[in-house]
Amino acid sequence: MKKFKNLIFYITTIGFFSFAIYWIVNFGSKLELGKKINLPVSKNSQWVEFQNTLLHNLEHPLAILLAQILTIILVARFFGWFFKKIGQPTVIGEILAGILLGPSLVGLYFPEFSHALFPKESLGNLQFLSQIGLILFMFVIGMELDIKVLKNKANDAVVISHASIIIPFAMGMALAYFVYDSFAPEGTQFISFALFMGIAMSITAFPVLARIIQERGMHKTKLGTVIITCAAADDITAWCILAIVIAIVKAGSFVSALYTIALAAAYVIFMLKLVRPFLKRIGDINADKSHLNKPIVAIFFITLIFSSWATEVIGIHALFGAFMTGAIMPENTKFRDIFIEKVEDIALVLLLPLFFVFTGLRTEIGLLNDIYLWKVTGVIILVAVAGKFIGSALAARFVGQNWKDSLIIGALMNTRGLMELVVLNIGYDLGILTPEIFAMMVIMALVTTFMTGPALDFIEWAFRKIKTDSSDNNEELSKYRILISFGNTERGKSLLKLANSFVKKLNTNAEITTMHLAQTNEIHQFNIKDYENEIMTPIIEESRQLKQKITPLFKASIDINADIFEEANKGEYDLLLVGIGQSIYEGSFLGKVLGFTTRIMSPERIKNKLTGKEKLFDNSHFDDRTREILAGSKVPVGIFIEKNLNNITNVIIPFISESDIQLVNYFQKLINNAEALITLVDINGFIKSNEQLNERLRLIEEYVPNHLQVLSEWEIEKKLITNYDLMLVSLESWESLVVEDEEWLNNAPSTLILKP
Predict the structure, then answer these.
(1) Regarding the domain delimited by 90-461, which CATH topology (the fold level of the hierarchy) does it fall under?
(2) Looking at the domain 643-756, which fold is it?
(3) Minimal CA–CA distance to 535: which of 558, 519, 521, 511?
(4) C-alpha–C-alpha distance, residues 145 and 152, integer Å
(5) Same topology between domain 473-522+530-638 and domain 643-756
């Protein structure tokens, strides 16, 4: 009755007030008598009028801006993903996406589309939005700097850092002397042009460098700490120098700029002595809160905006103010992490790509239409690499680093990335750089960033150590090695418990490595140690309870799946254990019950199918992550599906085909190390008909009696499978069960799917 009551009320209310509206409009139209009402008169049909209105809406500034943002994000994300897959920093793909959307490609070959999407009058809106993105980004960069590291490791790092600035700075100014006549804008003073060429040559991209160090697992090494400290010192010093350079350029001379520099110094003192203690006090009061309330967040954002406004008014650019605000944020890592999460996504995903494209719209590669201009570009790249790479490497060697580490420091300090584009755009906005020299410098930024990865690989190859102790090698090879890759601590503990059951009694002849890979964009340099401790401490505690020695391995990754099987392959492990991803039951009856649906094929799967790693018409019932690991791993893989695993005492194994024979080695280890009771289910009489397998089972039973039984399919009630602790099954048999026998899946306990 309640249902009809609500319906009657709804119809009555809507009907009554609709009639009232009609009555008001009808009587109100009579008030128009005697008034001159001008109605638009159109000779076009209603359809033509609709088309004209739609076209007008498409050309509205807001519609154009939204279309620009949509296009930019899609293209930038695609290129970023592609370059990440080939082992390059995402930022290279995003920068390249911006250049391709500009006059260098789209504007050159599709001028009408380019004009429609990026009309000249709309670029102002795009620029302001990109500047907001840069301000937020520099705020994050300031927060990611660990000032404590600078205090503790400042000696050698400052020498290397400042040498890596002054050497390329001087070389950049020397280069400016030779290109000033040909490429400096009309009316630009030599000192302004030379100073900008110098600072452009001496910049290092701290965020890209930090990500590369994390991805290569160097952050825990002494060398990694030195490099991070060098980059941090470089960043702070370079931005201070840039602020002075901007002040000189705007003032016109060094003497005139002294007023600006004095004002900037007063600003820095004010931020350090007054604002920083105030923010620290707020941070200490709210340090224990998992979520900050809006007034607290507002205080910090007001500080950011005020600081950026102040430095813009002073004449040293708003970005310096944003960087300064980030650097003086409370040192509490949890507090900073909360703020980075609030800012980073909107800055990096939405607004920063706008800056790349705005830079791309300014970069006209087509202007370099002469062999001479490309020679000049080559010289610029050569000077940039010589100044930064060689300068940093020589300084590192001078303070006592060996040649290998010195060259690694040089290669990483030569990374320029996004920070270079920021400097170049400031120079372009100030009218110091012409479009030609701007394009050359953008190419230099791309090349020096792109070469970092290959340069590091080459240095590692050139200085590789060849193991000569064959006895040690033989001892190492005799060990049974298991690599566990886990995403969260609970799954990691379960996988460790499972691995321990295979090697419990092997003592020194077993080696278990517990690996956690963290997505690069989800962790930050300043709190990476805390994050590692949070993840690894429960795993280490679990290993102590199991009395199992482990080797913890933690590293940042731009491609977790690829790094998992790459680590497994190069480490010569005997077994890789991973937890299952979602959609394991996709396509089965249980999958329909649980609500899993087929997902769009990922780009990685498309690549695997085209390269032959996956069959073209393969209907695997695994998620994309698991498929990729199975396709890339050259060692046996165990895929673990946990259902409240406590002990591994009773193990059930369905035997369906010849592929299941490989399971004998695994359940034999469970018998020997965990004293597990094994039940083999002879489906279709496979065991009974295989004499060789029967002989192996007889020997196992003879050696360890009362631990092995063979049952035919009709002797076991499938509903009672849940009483077992673990089910072992080969990959081929699992696929068969998914398609043909849903009852096995419905009642299965924790399951380990093994691929040889």
Answers:
(1) Na+/H+ antiporter like fold (1.20.1530)
(2) Rossmann fold (3.40.50)
(3) 519
(4) 13
(5) yes
Structure tokens at 45: 């049909």
CA distance 732 to 639: 13
Q: Dig out the tokens for 455 from the structure.
A: 């340069």
What's the half-sphere exposure (Cβ side, CA atoms, 13 Å) at 704? 18
The three-point CA angle 56-57-59 to 5° equals 65
The DSSP bridge partners found for residue 575 are 482
| pTM recorded for the entire structure | 0.68
Cα distances (Å, whole numbers) of residue 363 to 113, 126, 628: 18, 15, 38
Length of the chain: 756
Q: Which amino acid is at 112?
A: E
The tokens 């050259």 sit on which residue?
Answer: 634
* Per-block mean pLDDT, blocks of 10 residues, the chain (756 long): 77 91 85 69 67 80 90 90 81 86 87 88 86 87 70 68 90 93 88 91 82 72 78 80 84 75 89 91 73 81 93 86 88 76 80 86 86 94 93 88 90 87 89 92 92 88 58 53 89 90 84 86 65 86 89 82 83 86 42 39 48 45 74 88 84 84 87 88 80 83 84 73 86 78 74 87
Per-position DSSP letters for 178-214, written without gaps between them: HHHHHHSPTT--HHHHHHHHHHHHH---HHHHHHHHH
Token pair in block for residue 748: 């299965």
Q: What angle do CA 365, 371, 374 make, to 5 degrees?
A: 50
Domain 473-522+530-638 falls in which CATH fold?
A: Rossmann fold (3.40.50)
Helix (H) or strand (E) holding 553: strand 550-557
Per domain, the residue ranges of the chain are 90-461, 473-522+530-638, 643-756
